[in-house]
Amino acid sequence: MKAIVVTDQAAGTAGMKLVDRPEPQAAINDVVVEIHASGFVGTELTWPSTWADRRDRDRTPTIPGHELAGVVTALGYGTAGLSVGQRVFGLADWHRDGTLAEYVAMEARNLAPLPGDVDFTVGASLPISGLTAWQGLFEHGRLRAGQSVIAHGAAGAVGSMVTQLAREAGAYVIGTGRAADRQKALDFGANEFVDLENDTLEDIGGVDLVFDVIGGDIQKRSAGLVRAGGTLVTIVGPAEARPADGLAVDFVVEADRAQLTEIVQRVRDGRLRTNIGNIATLDDAVTAFNPTGRVSGKTIIRVRP
Q: Whole-model pTM?
């Protein structure tokens, strides 16, 4: 099968190569999925799990990518809950070969059924962004109706999901980003927008929840805006700053079939829109992941027409 592999961490995305690899086999509780579309997060190439297994043994050449939508082609021994020929989407294990390929073997529990009226490209754009937003808001941030939320990077893949899900839950959402992102963030449902390059973040005042995708100085300043009993949620590693009278939570997104089902249902009925910035073929994936300009939104690789 054709697959993108990486062997040199220092080379970053420029070190990606399209090669031929053996088709994967299904282990116990696995399925093999014929991939129709897949996603990739640029920071994957800095994650230890991309380069080593759970025992810290080198596992290169590695196939990156962890989001996918496709069709089940084989079941491993003991696999239940899915069937051959079923349309699925989901989040592949961090420590195993990923989804920038024509096939992937992964645990069945990490997949959810993909309804027939949802395109594979849309399905592949949902797992990381959707689950990250869902878990950050509702599991770690304990968001409730009537609360206020700062959604950093509101025009990005995760931030746009945070904005939409928070608004649907009855929250007041303040999106942030660059000046050029203002209209896109408002279109995704932000009640107001703060230009981090020209506006003063502190003018927002107190909020109940900060969803941080930036870190650094912005995270530290944001922590000071969290009201008593509120929460700073971050996905960029351990929090460098904590609210004076609140919580700081950093987390890594996890696969969850029930949550994926909730997310895709919202796409089906129009409550949730994806944020796809570029679509490329597997043959053109290396070029797509090394763009010459800024791409606003998620890049999806369409593996099959």
A: 0.96
